[in-house]
Amino acid sequence: MVISYINWGCVRKRYLRFLLSSLLFALFFSCKENKMESVLKMAGDNAKELEMILRHYENDEEKYNAALFLIHNMPDYYSLVGEELDKFKMALGSADSCGVLDSITYNKWIHFSPHLLKKSFDIRTVSADYLIKNIDLAFTAWKKRPWAKSISFDEFCNFILPYRINDEVMDNWREIYYNRYSFLLDSVYTGNDIVKAVKTICEYIQKEDPYRFTWVFDYPHLGGEYLLNNRVGKCKDACDFIVYVLRALGIPVACDYYAYNSETRNSHIWNVIKDSNGKWLPFAFPYTVPQRGNLYIDSRRPSVIYRQYFAKQNKDKGLYIPQNLIHEHSKKVSDNYFSTTLRIETKKYDIGDCALLGLFNNHGWIPIDYAMNKNGIAIFKNIGPNQIYILMDYSNGQSIAKGYPFYFDGNNIQEFIPTEERISAKITRKFPLSERVIKYMNDMRNGTIWGNNGNNKANLLYKISDSITSNHNIINLKRPVNYRYIHYISSSESYAQVAELHIFYNDKEHCPTNWYGEEPATQGTYANQVSDNNPLSYYISKKRGAKITIDLGQRVTINRLTFMPRNDDNFVNIDTNYELFYWSKEGWTSLGRQTAKSPQLLYNNIPMGSLLYLHNCDGGEEELAFYIKDGRQVFVSDCKD
After folding, report:
1. pLDDT over threshold 80, residue 196
2. Which residues contact 573 (CB under 8 A, 6 or more apart)?
3. Which of 101, 229, 71 lies closest to 163 in space, CA to CA?
4. Is the CB of residue 203 less than 8 Å from the CB of residue 242?
5. Which end of the chain is more exposed for a tag (fewer CB within 10 A), N or C?
6. Cα separation of 59 and 436, whole Å?
7. Mean pLDDT of 278-297
8. What CA–CA distance (Å, rounded) separates 123 from 79?
9. For the chain, how long is the longest CA-to-CA vector?
10. For the chain, what percent of residues have pLDDT higher than 70?
11. d(CA 419, CA 203)
12. Distances 469 to 406, 418, 631 between C-alpha atoms, Å
């Protein structure tokens, strides 16, 4: 006879595990029930619509859980509504092919703000029919596609299922977009490669109706139906449009973004899709499509990257950090882009539990990330390389810079610590010169300036042979000439892009009486703007090899001309006041003010090894930190945009 012995220790362990799992299970559903009770209470009279949705799916567990997901997160969402918004959207839709609005429309809406609109909360207004239709269509599109098996339920809920993006007015976008574009995956591309599918879709919709970028005004998200009929807006609107298209077709798509960048002093957003291999691939409609192995966004240098989720992310709950670092519906995804880790010793600084990392801003360093301060070390994981940062602390609601700024190349840091030795340098700009602006400026290369007196014969006065490196350019004629009309003609390979063109005899400027230009490329870029003394206004022709004519009213004597190409107004401007600062142990410290007498400022008192920035005391916003190497300014930027 075999005698078996009971291992009571094992039994007790199994029983405890059973009790624990049962308790967690009960707690999970108790939390769900409590949350639902809270949501239904917030819904007020609309609670019956939400309950109707849940009853509709009570025999379909997957769709029931999808409905719960939407309803649980619904309290955070609303539409911004108002009669003024409808009028604004009509005005925005009138932008030309370059995204430019006429001056009357621009001036009428320049002060429009989302703060003028009312919030209409989804929890109190959404109907059962609307949400049920959205859920059913989302599931149909998801299950229909061959890549469905690589998409988790959580990914489906956040990146296909949502009935809205942000604060746009709700509409019937999902059905409309599906009916319009489903043929692209049903007959044009029928394979199982999600990257090729997205490429097919993006190329078609851009060819169908080219997107028009415009960077003016502050306004809420525009909505699916509006963007389908008006392909116009900012980067966020282009991203929204792609989200509507791809989600309607069952493709998991999200928006990644960075909240601040020193080069642009702004945020930026783009789309990402989830490849079947689990990797997320970025792209920027309409310029690029997703490519495997390519995580390039653009030439701007991000530091920390987030991804927008429909569900609230509670990662920062309870931490004492600045408000701008709390992204409730976003998750940090820098590890998708960077593998670099920044390790900083904090022992010599008075730092709290959380250390902050800051980027330059001429109004004060901006915190862009945080890390726990443990044993005198702060480790910032997956941080963007090739940037100038500074360590910061958060105390009494203030972000305070600590120590000296440093350059992080992805492996090592180089601190900018000023020494007692002083050096000299010529300062020519307050912001890096981008490739985009260089291209604008060099459109004047090989351009010619002519004079005539109303007859058919014009005499060549000057040919711009060299590359243009400054916004202030002087032409001294070999001898005085007498003309009424001055013409500028761009080369046959270039557009006429001119910010300023002025005519002198010695120190006396001749004032034009009229201007003539060939058809401008966009609204608001007219020939008379070459004489308005505004470096940021300009004329740009629609065709290459174009001509501008300045009429001086009568024949006058001329021996000097000045011209300015289209530019960004960040060169040193004559008769403008500037102040140079360097970072000392006390913070930004002045090296003195100067009024520019030429396109460069000479400073002889710059501490060697210091970080500097140049401030335009008379106006302008774009300013970026730099250092001096071999007597020249060096900006840590290679921005091409």
Report:
1. yes
2. 471, 472, 535, 596, 599
3. 71
4. no
5. N
6. 58
7. 93
8. 11
9. 129
10. 94
11. 56
12. 29, 30, 18
Is 32's pLDDT higher than 70? no
Write the single-letter amino acid at 451. Answer: G
d(Cα 434, Cα 496) in Å, to the nearest integer? 19
CA contacts within 13 A on the Cβ side of 234 = 13
Please count the other Cβ atoms lying within 10 Å of the Cβ belonging to residue 508.
11
Mean predicted confidence (pLDDT) in 537-555:
95
The answer to whether residues 580 and 592 touch, using CB atoms and an 8 Å cutoff, is: yes
- Residue 613 to residues 83, 579, 589, 606, 630, Cα–Cα distance (Å): 45, 9, 10, 11, 17
Q: What sign for the dihedral angle of Cα 219, 223, 227, 229? A: negative
Any bridge partners for residue 427, and if so which?
601
C-beta separation of 172 from 137 below 8 A: no
Q: Calculate the alpha carbon distances from 623 to 174, 364, 581, 594, 626 in Å.
A: 43, 12, 11, 17, 10
Q: Is 618 exposed, middle or buried (0-12, 13-18, 19+ CB in 10 A)?
A: exposed
Rg (the chain; Cα; Å): 30
- Is residue 68 within 8 Å of residue 51, measured between CB atoms? no
Other Cβ atoms within 10 Å of 127 Cβ, number: 14
Of the given ranges (58-72, 434-448, 513-527, 605-619), which has the lowest mean pLDDT? 513-527
Q: How many CB atoms are closer than 10 A to CB 304? A: 24
CA–CA separation, 125 vs 81, rounded Å? Answer: 13
Query: For 458-506, where are the E strands, in sequence order?
Result: 459-463, 473-489, 495-505
**How far is the C-alpha of 69 from the C-alpha of 538, rounded, in Å?**
52
State the DSSP code for 533. Answer: S
Listed in order, strand segments (DSSP E) in 328-472 are 330-332, 341-345, 354-359, 366-374, 377-381, 387-395, 398-408, 413-415, 422-427, 448-452, 459-463
Choose among 391, 409, 408: nearest CA to 400.
Answer: 391
CB 451 within 8 A of CB 483: yes
Cα–Cα distance, 502 to 500 (Å, whole number): 7
Do the beta carbons of residue 342 and residue 290 sit within 8 Å? no
CA torsion sign, 466 to 470 to 471 to 474? negative
Sign of CA dihedral 292, 293, 296, 302: positive
Cα 450 from chain centre? 42
Residue position matching structure tokens 């005391």 = 617
Which among 228, 268, 163, 627 has a CA at the least distance from the CA of 419?
Answer: 627
In the block, tokens 């916003």 appear at 621
Mean pLDDT of all residues in 416-443: 94
SS3 content of the chain, % helix, strand, coil (to 5): 30, 30, 40
Q: Which of 225, 68, 63 is nearest to 142 (CA)?
A: 63
**What is the CA 75 to chain-centroid distance, rounded?**
27
